[in-house]
Amino acid sequence: MPTLNEIFYRRKITLYHNENLDLDHYYQEPYQDQGDEIKEMDEPYETDKLRKKRRINLNFEDRQYSSFSYFMDGSRRTYKIGDMVLNGREIFPVVVAQVRAGCTERNQSRKIQSHQAVYRKNLLLLSSRMNEVDFEEIRQRIIKTEVARNLNLEVVQYKFDHQKDNVPVNAAIAKANTIMHSMEIDILESMVHSGALEPDQMLIVDGPLQFIRQDTGKPDFADLFYNVVGVSKSFDPMLPTSGKARRGGTQIGAELLKLEHGERTPVFLKINSRGRKFGCWYLRIRPKDRVSNPLEGIVKLEKMALVEDEEGLHSSVVDNISLSILNEGSPTCYGRDERWSSHLYPVYLTEALIKSSFESDLVFINNFKRDFR
User: Fold this and answer.
1) Which SUPFAM superfamilies does UniProt cross-reference here (predicted)?
2) pTM, whole model, 2 decimals?
């Protein structure tokens, strides 16, 4: 019955177990759009080319209107369980993670219910600086153990880039996030192919559509995101509004302070590494006198552009999406979540459903202190 330490030591790699560290509490959660870059803010990426904020007319008759029927979210918990020494001179953290993704549906009685089972993965994350032979043998030994089978454990590698990550654990967390986003894409793909997502039914993804940056190689990838909108609760207020901003110009946060309840910015253009275009804009969903911080109560929205959107997203489509988001702002999760002012209630319920599938931290971590039989 070898321990995890002994499995590593067979490849002459020393694993030091240390005090277990809950990385999600130890490291501050980054902005949801961290690393984002907007290509064009000087000219609106929508059919209405006015360079000023727009007001969404929220009439009494529109109060029950929303084009959103589905709500998707992913969540993860990451823990550092030790450090491994490579080649007698480099130390890298060993990280484990619980990763979940799921989708809920608003039924005809306007109740939120689970659309399908929550997707689950448990991960053991090791540094890619380990050579392939050592990694593969360690991986094979671990996945054959009873503990790994019970956990349905996957052993994967993370790549630490000194230019992108401050510390190696950030690279491990980023890898867990990438796997989580892939699980969300799998759910979305099954919904589209099964016909669950009808043309008149839209889906909210909690967070930016950042995972679309990944090159999945799916030929029908754009079709998957035809009716999907990304909604970010947190965003970088220091994002420059033009290339000049990097040399002391205006940052997006200064512009957002001018938004009143029900107002949105023009649509801005984003382009990913594969040349796909997205429109993103900001919308204030709470009155300024109801929040404690002037940047609270604002969400960042994203939608993939279609081939026919040569002039940008249709302004009427953007306004309809914004109207739906404003209507999703009631009721609130005030008192239950500190992010209530930017948290849409159906997304909050989806998040709660997904988090209920996690094992307790203590139970999950203790699996890696046992003998790996």
Assistant:
1) Ribonuclease H-like
2) 0.89
